[in-house]
Design a protein that fits this description.
GO terms for molecular function: identical protein binding; N2-acetyl-L-ornithine:2-oxoglutarate 5-aminotransferase activity; pyridoxal phosphate binding. It comes from Paraferrimonas haliotis. Belongs to the class-III pyridoxal-phosphate-dependent aminotransferase family. ArgD subfamily. It is an enzyme of class 2 (transferase). Its main location: cytoplasm. Helix content is about 40%, strand content about 20%. The chain contains 14 helices and 17 strands. The longest helix is centred in the last third of the chain and has 25 residues. The chain has about 400 residues and is an alpha/beta fold. It folds into two domains: about 150 residues, Aspartate Aminotransferase, domain 1 (Alpha-Beta Complex); about 230 residues, 3-Layer(aba) Sandwich (Aspartate Aminotransferase, domain 2), CATH 3.40.640.10.
């Protein structure tokens, strides 16, 4: 075996398309909620690969699933199905409102499938006039041209030419604007039950109830994008389970594979029938290797003690952040559900969320941002309490460094 090529952060600038600006840190090893870089420095991981590493790094159940399936069968075309895909789909159906599952590779692909299904279903059942999609400002649904156009952040969708039509945006939680916009021409409403990239903003219960009722009134499908909130992130297997609203279509990805690329779109028998043979597809969707790992994630996460632990750990982190804020007065509030938590900058620190994220890395903590004004925390769902304590200690040091430098 030849020696591996020596690479550094400078290599990124030499060989990678410049659409990312990654940290100078290059992690090389992870275990649980700890990560080590090329120089051997240790970090506590409060980022979780952007809510992906729901069981931390190299969880034994996932390593076992990967190893065992890797010695059996990696890939088949969709001319054939496979056992891991059928088992995972069965478990998703058993655990949710859904009757049918479509597998893809990423959240964007699952959302693309959901939007195409909604349009196809409306066309077949109601006619060409029923094509409007309603979505929400600051929403995020992926980076394909369709999903980025439905997402409510122009910074991501502008600059690529004409956008797909019949897509309208309103402010999240604004029920009066929603009432004024929805009509019998609306085929679907797409929303996150808790906006992630948009700033960790929860849908108000009454807003959700009225959206559901108006969708029913106008024969529009309600699509929940649970790419970030799904697989236990909020303390429920899916966030809709903590509300009294059930969507018609749900998308899930990120944590579904615990770090291995997989996504799924879930829906009912009545709606699923519109995706007829050949109307949509994915080369790798339903890949046996991905599905075997997804099944292992389901088996670990969908347990009452794990989900209850998410809610308990939420309180630990929230209380810790509030204690830090009592000293340094940098946050307006701490919000979110489960282990999707946002610390919102106050007036004195507007636009400086990234400063806190960068300072945290210097102190040995990995965290995220959700826009310019929110520091985001999405750690492993099973992060040990001692790692939470150490991570908060390091974050406090980062806050102190930013405050002292101001």
């Amino acid at each position: 075996m030849t020696n591996p090529l020596s690479v550094s952060r400078d290599t990124f600038n030499d060989v990678m398309v410049p659409n990312y600006a990654p940290s100078a840190v290059i992690p090389v090893k992870g275990e649980g909620s700890r990560v080590w870089d090329q120089q051997g420095k240790e970090y506590v991981d409060f980022a979780g690969g952007i809510a992906v590493n729901c069981l931390g790094h190299c969880h034994p159940a996932l390593v076992t699933a990967l190893t065992e399936q890797g010695q059996k069968l990696w890939h088949l075309s969709n001319v054939m199905t496979n056992e891991p895909a059928l088992r995972l789909a069965s478990k998703l159906v058993d655990a949710t409102f859904a009757d049918k599952v479509y597998f893809a590779n990423s959240g964007a692909e699952a959302n693309e499938a959901a939007l195409k299904l909604a349009r196809r279903h409306a066309l077949e059942k109601h006619g060409e006039h029923k094509n409007q999609i309603i979505a929400f400002n600051q929403g995020f649904h992926g980076r394909t041209f369709f999903t980025v156009s439905v997402g409510g952040q122009a910074i991501y969708s502008d600059g690529f030419g004409p956008k797909p039509g019949a897509i309208d945006h309103i402010n999240y939680n604004d029920i009066e604007a929603f009432k004024a916009l929805i009509s019998d021409n609306t085929c679907a409403v797409m929303m996150e039950p808790l906006q992630g990239e948009g700033g960790i903003i929860k849908a108000e219960p009454e807003f959700l109830r009225q959206v559901r009722a108006l969708c029913d009134q106008h024969n529009a499908l309600l699509i929940f994008d649970e790419v970030q909130t799904g697989m236990g992130r909020t303390g429920e297997l899916y966030a809709y389970m903590g509300t009294d609203v059930v969507p018609d279509i749900l998308t899930t990805a990120k944590a579904l594979g615990g770090g291995f690329p997989i996504a799924a779109m879930l829906t009912t028998d009545e709606i699923a029938v519109s995706l007829k043979i050949g109307s949509h597809g994915s080369t790798y969707g339903g890949n046996p290797l991905a599905c075997a790992i997804g099944e292992a994630v389901m088996d670990v996460v969908n347990q009452a003690p794990v989900l209850a632990g998410v809610k308990a750990k939420h309180e630990l982190i929230k209380n810790g952040l509030n204690a830090i804020n009592a000293k340094y007065k940098v946050f307006e509030c701490v919000r979110g559900e489960g282990l999707l938590i946002g610390a919102v900058m106050n007036q004195d620190y507007q636009g400086k969320a990234r400063d806190f994220m960068v300072a945290a890395v210097e102190q040995g903590l990995m965290c995220l941002i959700a826009g310019a004004n929110v520091v985001r925390f999405t750690p492993s769902l099973v992060i040990p309490d001692e790692d939470i304590a150490l991570g908060l200690e390091r974050f406090e040091a980062a806050v102190a460094a930013v405050v002292n430098a101001s």
